[in-house]
Amino acid sequence: MTRQIIQTDKAPAAVGTYSQAVKVGNTVYISGQLGFDPKTMVLKEGFDAQAKQVFENIKAICEAAGGSLNDVVKFNVSLTDLNDFAALNEVFIANLTEPYPARAAVQVAALPKGGVVEIESILYIE
């Protein structure tokens, strides 16, 4: 199978040696997204604002890949504080419909650029 690189200016540009997403067959792997505004590349302030921006970024990449948030089958979430878990659930509820995808959430010591939440995603597009 061939790999297709997915890129959109509606999500933050990759700032390292990675792509926003890679599509192989019907599966799309979206790199971890932080709460950066894609136009200014400034990190949003606070957990809620960052989490909402992360979902906007993931949504834009899903659409660039030919899918939507409904096509996500797995989320991997990294939080710098597990006390934000309840607020994270509220952001998921606001952005997703049942049946919900699989998800893992872990607390990490730190995230790049001072972020407080990072989410990576896997989509399956039929």
From TrEMBL:
Q: Write out the coiled-coil annotation as residue ranges.
A: none
Checking InterPro entries in the record gives: RidA, RidA_CS, RutC-like_sf, YjgF/YER057c/UK114
Tell me which Pfam families the record gives: Ribonuc_L-PSP (PF01042)
- Judging by the UniProt lineage, the source's domain of life is Bacteria
**Family statement drawn from the similarity comment of this UniProt entry:** Belongs to the RutC family.
Protein name (record): RidA family protein
